[in-house]
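Check these lines:
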Amino acid sequence: MSTRTLATAPAPSATRAWLGHHRQAAVSSLLRCLRRPWATLLTVSVMALALALPMGLSIALDNLKHFAGSVQQSRQISLFLHPDFSVDQARKLVTELEQRADVQGIELRTPEQGLQELRSVAGMGEAIDVLDENPLPSVLLVTPAAGSDEQALGEALAALPQADLVQHDALWRQRLDGWLALGTRLVNLLSSVLGIGALLVVGNTVRLDILARREEIDVLQLLGAGNGFIRRPFLYLGAWYGLGAGVVALGLWAACVAAIRPPLAALTQSYASPFVFKTLDALHSGFVLLGTTVIGVTGAWLVASHVLRQNRLVKG
């Protein structure tokens, strides 16, 4: 028992020393940033501007997708039946069409439902009361199955003897999907380019800090300190830069959203639209902060590793 205890005793001490150095490196790097506020603010601001632009474009693109309507709604095919077909006949047709493999679901809109919707439109109630009979036909809202040929389904519905008119916005939806896909690709490319720019900014800042502490690093290397031990404070320095840039970027877009929300709300209200501009929630904001921190750590790691490797080569 005593031999086993002596053999395992150094492990907690080594772990505590390792954790203690991490804590010391994190605190010392943070204090180093605070001791030079203007230089830190400049670095963080440049990174934040580089990161805020693609983040804002991504938010705007997501809201554009939301404003354009859900994919489910845009995939619906409207089948207008002949006016002389009764509601019972329309229900039988629904039962028949639901057996098709390329049909996911069908919603029946009766003439009475259509007339009620028209009554809700301002100024239409009096005009409808003048009518002797309901002129509206039954309408089937057909949702194609996933992966089915929507164009072929639309043509099959148009060939039905009960069909009077088939309305399908497949071409419009394909064009909209194409524009949204192009926008997503541009946002991804811009995010990559500006993310590399932010990485270079933090990398250059950490390089200058390493050069300013060259003598301290030389002493540590003479004492036998490994690259991981020497590099650790600079990694935390990059992490603080990245975290600060993420906070500033989120603050910038919060201010932008607060500025555009009132006129946007007035615009959507004038169109009687329920659209509400969506911004990042707490979970996605946390992912943004994590991503910017990773960028800062990555830039610091690349530069610190390169400088330390070059320093050892020069000494060798």
In short: The beta strands are 77-81, 103-109, 139-144, 163-168.
